[in-house]
Amino acid sequence: MISKKNKILIVGLGLIGGSYAKGLTKNGYEVGAISLSIDDIDYAIKNNIIKHGHTEVKKEYISQFDIIIFALYPKTFVEWIEKYHHFIKKDAIISDVTGIKSPIIYKIQDILKDDVEFIAAHPMAGKEVSGVINSDEKIFINANYIITPTLKNTKRGINVAKNIAEILSFKNISILTPEKHDEMIAFLSQLTHCIALSLMTCKQSHHLKDYTGDSFRDLTRIANINENMWSELFIMNKDVLLEQMELFEKEFSKLKKAIANEDVTTLKNMMIESSKRRSYFNK
Amino acid sequence: MISKKNKILIVGLGLIGGSYAKGLTKNGYEVGAISLSIDDIDYAIKNNIIKHGHTEVKKEYISQFDIIIFALYPKTFVEWIEKYHHFIKKDAIISDVTGIKSPIIYKIQDILKDDVEFIAAHPMAGKEVSGVINSDEKIFINANYIITPTLKNTKRGINVAKNIAEILSFKNISILTPEKHDEMIAFLSQLTHCIALSLMTCKQSHHLKDYTGDSFRDLTRIANINENMWSELFIMNKDVLLEQMELFEKEFSKLKKAIANEDVTTLKNMMIESSKRRSYFNK
Fold first, then answer.
1. Quick one: which of B198, B252, B193 has its CA closest to B225?
2. Which residue among B197, B203, B255 places its CB closest to the CB of A247?
3. Do A203 and B125 touch (CB under 8 A)?
4. In this complex, is the C-beta atom of A264 within 8 Å of any C-beta atom belonging to chain B?
5. What is residue B283's predicted lDDT score, i.e. its pLDDT?
6. Is B127 within 8 Å of B134 (Cβ atoms)?
7. Which ipTM value was assigned to this complex?
């Protein structure tokens, strides 16, 4: 359990890092931050998102914290750990918000000394805007949260991750293996982004917006996509993502065949099944 | 222009027919309805959605109306016109809300006598619920509305269709040929439904909902789909829809190849283009 005496450090003050900081501060925890941008640190202090922060990574500062949450792109996260892991206090728990797990968890756990535990977690929440100025702790309310322990994790570590989720008002906390997480996320999040962006770029027309209903808007909301983060996520999870893309392609092609053959029975059966399954997803 | 003295008949009291009736009644027009269900007629009278209505199609009733709006499935609409068109008053204007245009407009205009004008229109609005009890005239506020005249239409007919859209608070009224409409709708509405339902049915997993973020929910909102209406719409617009499906498949497969080859440049370019295009669609 996290106590109010524990100091929490957020590394990376983007939308998710900022929203974590805001939520933890509002709940009475002392939150510090590391960010490359002094403007973001200043903004976050001024707006009661964090208590203090630095742009430089120094041992005196890092070693104060009992809990560190990394909100960086996956590769930058691994590089940070390689470079600075010896700054981290003995018995500290570190966690993250990274959208991909197996390609980073084992690497990081191997680098860390035995007295620091990394428990990985993934908050299934976001917004189509970025940066600390758009921080909003309310995006976590009723959202899903996935913890992905390995054999190296302890009950204490898992409980800290659960506790972070509880403090931030996540609704549903699941425990998955890193591999199962990556498959689920490839399907639920990466595949959906692949679909949205292909739909957005496949047809050139300047007037589409004058003819559209809400369905096209819904399917392309996430087509506004951060190319640096998502290209990294797609490639790191390449094998699993390609499998999910092929699963979708196969089903889409089955539907296409049914339309081409005017096979009303298959069409209706797919639609009935689709409606039934969708009903489980109503919030 | 529609005058308050004009009586308006809605044929088909589903979600869209009911919402038209409600909006027109609220704006002070006398609205009647034809529906197969006496319960729907009773409900609509009781709730001030219509002034009067019948389940049987009789000449004495139909011939009272200056404007008739059909909110039926496409095939039922054509059958209705074949059977009852001679009940319609001289100089009446008829319009519709059908989601497909070229396969029905020319047929209907051929059946009608010269003294009745059919001006086709398509309100780009809806809801994932059905029936007159879910009627809601607010779904049209700021939505798009497409009018699809042919060479047989007159300025008077087009103005009546425009006027209906204005009374119901649609934001953007476009004029397209029936063929261009069918292509746009195949892309913006039918393709999006094909994608949503394939995504919903392609992977069997009972726990998906515990891991999902908003993106999967957004992309599958319309996966709750009326199989009778949509199988009819897909098949009637088959050729154009198949073209749009192939356009999407080609782009999706280009993205897949870029991921497989770890071709970061192509990936980022697609994402940048996608984000740029999506920005035009913000309401």
1. B193
2. B203
3. no
4. yes
5. 58
6. yes
7. 0.89
